[in-house]
Design a protein that fits this description.
By secondary structure, the chain is of the alpha/beta class. Among the domains are: about 110 residues, Beta Barrel (OB fold (Dihydrolipoamide Acetyltransferase, E2P)); about 130 residues, 3-Layer(aba) Sandwich (Rossmann fold), CATH 3.40.50.2300; about 60 residues, no CATH class. About 50% of the residues lie in helices and about 20% in strands. The protein contains 13 helices and 13 strands. A hairpin with a 4-residue loop joins strand 12 and strand 13. About 15% of the residues are buried.
């Protein structure tokens, strides 16, 4: 308790207080959906959007940064009832409690989004989105069908792109409402008509951007199954790049925008023309190369077509040339071998040994060897004599022969000091010849003569 009091009694700055409050708010509150009415809306030059979200009893400041606002797909306006997904935070510089908005939707779209997710999960389980069920788009379609509203701006964008990229392409528009009641049924009907008529090799289903509610016709289950059953490959170009519908998942190919769908459907004519010209030039070069190779081969075969007389003359010339080459090669080889033989003869003469000189050297070496052997033998005998004399000098038998004796106790231990004995000890005295056993009568430790009576 005292530690807590000491902690909170510490004086902190306002900026530290606001920072601690922001960290506490952000750690306690997860990402939330908050509903309310938009007011005090301000769109800054930086692209950030500032507004307040209010209900009948309170309001809270909100900020939506430029990157998030650009992905919204619709404009925020005062008086709109919206749901925002936001982080609860605090603007430290002013100490303002605010919401950092990550996403926003018009109130009521939450149910639409949940319906969208349920339908997506259901169709995904049934396999309508599997990649193996997708059909390949034709590389060079001849006729293109467009399913959309004739009044839609997306149709104008698609037609402008196709006119620029592929003016040769035949286009059929299958009209259908793309928003409002009955739109999904009209789109499904138009697709069925296109599938029955089989007039096109590729279809585009397109519409401009909008909210989830505006695109609800493309999240219809019946329409999804109609797209899946359509015998003609289909590209979906619905809304903006961030908009996804059920039709996008079922289609054989999704484009982020209607214009991108037109670019996917039709390869650019100028690019195809350049590719065709490149192929034409490459083919021309290959044909010219083959022609040159065949011409060279023909010239070679023509040169080989000789008369028998010409062929005989040519073979005689070849024979004379080979004879001349053979004679020259033999002479060259003979001269080379003769030089080699002369060199070997000279080397052999130089390598002949001088037997007289070598014999004298052998005799001298033998004389030196005999002298060295004799000297070594004499040295060894002299050393042996010295060792023998030293060994004889150390022989105990020789010492005993000079009148000395050895005294030992019963344990065969040599007695070297009178302190090793005491009176009445038994000892053995060894002489040069024989030994006696004696008893110690008395012991003296003085250096010198023997004690009396010993």
């Amino acid at each position: 308790m005292d530690a807590d009091c000491a902690r909170y009694s510490k004086i902190i700055t306002v900026s530290s207080l606001n920072r601690l409050a922001r960290e506490a708010l952000e750690s306690v509150f997860p990402l939330h959906w908050v509903t309310g009415e938009v007011s005090n809306l301000v769109s800054a030059a930086s692209g950030h959007v500032y507004f307040s979200l209010k209900d009948n009893y309170a309001q809270v400041r909100c900020i939506m940064y430029r990157q998030r606002a650009q992905l919204l797909g619709w404009r925020l306006e005062n008086g709109q009832h919206i749901d925002v997904r936001a982080h609860v935070t605090l603007y430290e510089a002013r100490g303002d409690f605010q919401l950092n908005v990550d996403n926003a939707r018009k109130t009521g779209q939450g149910n639409l989004y949940e319906q969208f997710l349920r339908l997506k999960e259901k169709l995904e389980r049934e396999g309508l989105f599997l990649p193996e069920n997708k059909r390949e788009l034709p590389e060079f379609p001849r006729c293109l069908g467009i399913v959309t509203s004739p009044q839609a701006a997306a149709l104008h964008d698609v037609l402008s792109t196709l006119e620029r990229r592929a003016p040769h392409l035949d286009i059929i528009v299958y009209p259908a409402a793309v928003q409002g009641a009955g739109a999904a049924e009209q789109i499904a009907s138009a697709l069925s008509v296109a599938g029955i008529r089989q007039e096109c090799d590729l279809l585009i289903l397109c519409r401009g951007g909008g909210s989830l509610e505006d695109l609800s016709a493309f999240n219809d289950e019946k329409l999804a199954r109609t797209i899946h059953a359509c015998p003609i490959p289909l590209i979906s170009g619905i809304g903006h790049e961030t908009d996804f519908t059920i039709a996008d998942f079922v289609a054989d190919q999704r484009a982020p925008t209607p214009t991108a769908a037109a670019e996917l459907a039709a390869p650019e004519r100028s690019a195809l023309t350049r590719l065709l010209n490149d192929h034409r030039r490459s083919l021309k070069r290959q044909i010219q190369r083959i022609f040159d190779q065949k011409s060279q081969r023909l010239d070679g075969l023509a040169q080989r077509l000789l008369s028998p007389e010409q062929r005989l003359e040519r073979q005689q010339e070849n024979l004379l040339g080979l004879r001349h080459r053979l004679v020259s090669a033999w002479e060259l080889s003979h001269a080379r071998h003769r030089n080699v033989l002369a060199g070997l003869t000279n080397r052999l003469f130089l390598a002949q040994p001088d037997t007289g000189r070598l014999g004298r050297r052998v005799d001298a070496l033998a004389l030196r060897l005999r002298g060295a052997f004799k000297k070594n033998r004499d040295d060894r005998f002299a050393g042996l004599s010295r060792l023998e004399a030293g060994l004889a000098h150390l022989n105990p038998e020789k010492v005993l022969a000079r009148g000395y004796s050895i005294v030992s106790n019963n344990r065969n231990g040599i007695i070297q000091d009178s302190r090793q004995l005491k009176t009445n000890d038994s000892v053995v005295v060894s002489f040069h010849r024989g030994s006696v056993r004696a008893t110690v009568m008395s012991v003296t430790h003085e250096t010198g003569g023997l004690p009396e009576g010993t």
